[in-house]
Amino acid sequence: MTEAITKAPVITIDGPSGSGKGTIAKxxxxxxxxxxxxxxxxxxxxxxxxxxxDVDLADEARLADIAGNLDIQFAIANDExxxxxxxxxxxxxxxxxxxxxxxxxxxxxxAVRDALLQRQRDFRAAPGLVADGRDMGTTVFPDAPVKIxxxxxAEERARRRYDQLQGRGVSVSLRDLLEDIRARDDRDMxxxxxxxxxxxxxxxxxxxxxxxxxxxxxxxELVHKRIS
Length: 228
Hints:
single chain, alpha/beta, five-stranded parallel beta sheet, three-stranded antiparallel beta sheet
């Protein structure tokens, strides 16, 4: 038995925004009875705290300090995960577009990533963990026995986000969303600290033309092979 599995198995789900990794991670965690880490929420919470405090997103020292001292909690109720900042439920706030864009900028700062690294690793516990993010398999849990890199075309990801926002009654331009996604992809893939890329031993899945159930089936096949 490997050290990783002895410590507690981790399944990493990495990929760009809108690829469906959050949905797959939650479904997988529910099915296996594993804990769930939405690492993106930590960066979103850092970004929201910075925006609330009017901190310049170019002030790396202040942002790292915020990341290292976040008063955060995750609460689970009715199969939903809520994010609390200073005791306040900010689950909806951290999904706003301005926070998403700020989070992408904040996540490119090495000092912020360093401040949040151990917090992410502390989520690892029996019976196991499903970790969703951008660098879960490359940086945070490089010894994970199962690594997935989930992607989809920028156009498809923009369409999904558009449909999601329209369903919430939010008026938005599909063209603007596509431009935002491409800009975010560029930042995530070209940042100096833990750039977005599949781990060498990751299974790369393109969800552009595969539905969620199809993706889940492929992921479960790998899980059953790697974790007994």
